[in-house]
Every structure is written in C-alpha cells, then in structure tokens.
C-alpha cells in the first residue's frame, strides 16, 4: 500500500509527527489504511488523536489501497525517523500484508543532490494473556 506525499506539505508532516512525539504518555501509533483514506491515530493517557488524509488530498501524490488494514507501531520505534522527516522533500509510506512499515524519505543536500533515507518498522504484536 504505497503512499507518497508532495513537498508542499512538508511543514504539516513535521508538525504532525512532532505533535505526536511531544505527547509524553503516547505509547503507540495506529495506521488505518482504507480504500478511500489514510488515518493516523495515537492513543495515550492524555487522550486520543486521529488524523485523516483523503486519497484525493493535495498532500497525496499516489495512494493505492485494495483492502482495509490496521497496524499498530510503537512510537519509541518510530521516533528516530523524525530527524529524516524534518529534512525530507517527499515521503513514501508503504506497508506489506504482515504490517511491516517502510518509510522512504527523499532528501536534497546543499549541493542539490538527491539521496534517500529508508526506515523500516515492524508492527506491534498484542500478546494474549493466558
């Protein structure tokens, strides 16, 4: 399920992740992929937040989703990727059928050269208590 965002929304992307990052009691991030939109949700002791991105949003360059998928990721695992997000021009977000998350950041250096930073994260598995 690839998702690419356009560069005009870089500040919004960073603000979204920064606001999630600054929630001290936040323990996880939920990503819901629906055929018509992407929802990022956070849950913590301070409350819940949901951010919806329609498939035809100006922030989306490409959105492909064939079925509903819900994945949960620990914020402590996603936090290191925010440094690359702050420097990126575009971001590609992908998940596979197992819920593994791939974040690919397009970054331009001072000379105008393009490089990519990739970050992978496995989904959080809920442990069933006996």
UniProtKB/TrEMBL annotation:
Q: Which InterPro entries match?
A: Cell_cycle_checkpoint_Rad1, DNA_clamp_sf, Rad1_Rec1_Rad17
Q: Which UniProt keywords apply?
A: DNA damage, DNA repair, Nucleus
List GO terms (cellular component aspect). Answer: checkpoint clamp complex
Q: Where in the cell is it found?
A: Nucleus
Gene3D superfamilies attached here?
A: 3.70.10.10
A Pfam family found in this protein is: Rad1
Q: Name one GO biological process term.
A: DNA damage checkpoint signaling
Q: What family classification does the UniProt entry report for this protein?
A: Belongs to the rad1 family.
Q: What is this protein called?
A: Uncharacterized protein
Native organism is: Cyprinus carpio
- In the UniProt record, the gene name given for this protein reads rad1
């Amino acid at each position: 399920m690839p998702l690419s965002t356009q560069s005009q929304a870089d500040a919004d992307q960073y603000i979204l992740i920064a606001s999630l990052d600054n929630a001290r009691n936040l323990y996880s991030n939920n990503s819901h992929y629906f055929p018509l939109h992407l929802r990022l949700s956070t849950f913590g002791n301070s409350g819940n937040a949901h951010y919806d991105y329609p498939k035809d949003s100006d922030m989306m360059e490409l959105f492909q989703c064939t079925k509903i998928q819900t994945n949960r990721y620990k914020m402590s695992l996603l936090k290191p990727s925010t440094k690359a997000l702050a420097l990126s021009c575009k971001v590609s977000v992908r998940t596979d059928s197992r819920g593994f998350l791939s974040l690919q950041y397009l970054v331009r250096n001072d000379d105008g050269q393009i490089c990519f930073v990739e970050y992978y994260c496995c989904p959080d598995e809920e442990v069933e208590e006996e």
